Amino acid sequence: MPENTPLLSVRDLKKTYQGASGPVEAIGSITFDVRPGELVCIVGPSGCGKTTLLKCLSGLLPPTAGSVTLDGAEVTAPPKKMAVVFQEYGRSLYPWLTVRDNVGLPLKARGVPRRERLAAVERALEEVGLGHALDTYPWQLSGGMQQRVAIARAVAYEPEILVMDEPFAAVDAQTRADLEDLVRRVWQDLGVTVLFVTHDIDESVYLGERVLMLSSSPTVVQQDLAIDLPAARDQLTTRAMPRFTELRTQVYEQIQRAKRGETVAAPS
Ligand SMILES: Nc1ncnc2c1ncn2[C@@H]1O[C@H](COP(=O)(O)OP(=O)(O)OP(=O)(O)O)[C@@H](O)[C@H]1O
Description:
It comes from Cellulomonas avistercoris. By secondary structure, this protein is α/β, with parallel strands linked by helices. It has helices at residues 50-57, 89-92, 99-110, 114-127, 143-156, 173-190, 201-207, 242-260; strands spanning 8-19, 22-34, 39-43, 65-70, 73-74, 82-85, 161-165, 193-198, 210-214, 221-226. It has 2 domains: 1-81 and 160-268, P-loop containing nucleotide triphosphate hydrolases (Rossmann fold, 3-Layer(aba) Sandwich), CATH 3.40.50; 93-158, no CATH class. β7, α6 (173-190) and β8 (193-198) form a beta-alpha-beta unit. It is globular and about 55 Å long. The protein binds adenosine-5'-triphosphate. Adenosine-5'-triphosphate binds next to β1, β2 and α1.
């Protein structure tokens, strides 16, 4: 696929829920593209519709209007080319299966032969630094390690796009920093396209090559900001850069505007 052809295209996406006391307009109108190989973060105030947007992107919820297209095909059901990593790692892994079998499960479901499957599982676990944990069970691992297993499972599946829904919200700060670096490394090593949803402004700037800021509901894209930080990022030096501070201030101000319901800024 040529570099500039979008992999994911969201066009005038609108979602109105039928609530008990009338319609709730969660998403007003969202339009954006993600090109192959990009790492895009989506950030927005609580209740702005991030989960609703992800459900529509992953084919779990039909939009009220507009469309989602992945690799040229309209998304109407969970696409085979997409893997999703959720916040609740504890509920996304099967406790009665070893790490090896948890990671291999989607490949087994896809009919990948055993030998090939085991090799892919081992590669993915090596990539997330858990090559030694093949025969352990999820409940024998820390929260951060379980989330690594969930990332390995998504990676082993070789998706065209990896969607992550606030994946590090439930882990401690040190683990979170390690996992952020892991996402950047996986993205760089494997060249997979990543769409990362977070409510954490610093995280969005540290991780992203682009940050899409959402407004409050009914949601629109408030700003699409290019993150012009060096590709090699480091928790200490990158976060100490004056440019990092400028960018996080810009995102913070937009989010505050969004919370106050102020008008949309011109795209950067
Ligand atoms: N099933 C539903 N029926 C009616 N309204 C809903 C439903 N699901 C979500 N909403 C409303 O849609 C809006 C967006 O909700 P959503 O959960 O997508 O936001 P969010 O950005 O993911 O929130 P948070 O960051 O707090 O998790 C909210 O006003 C919410 O109350």
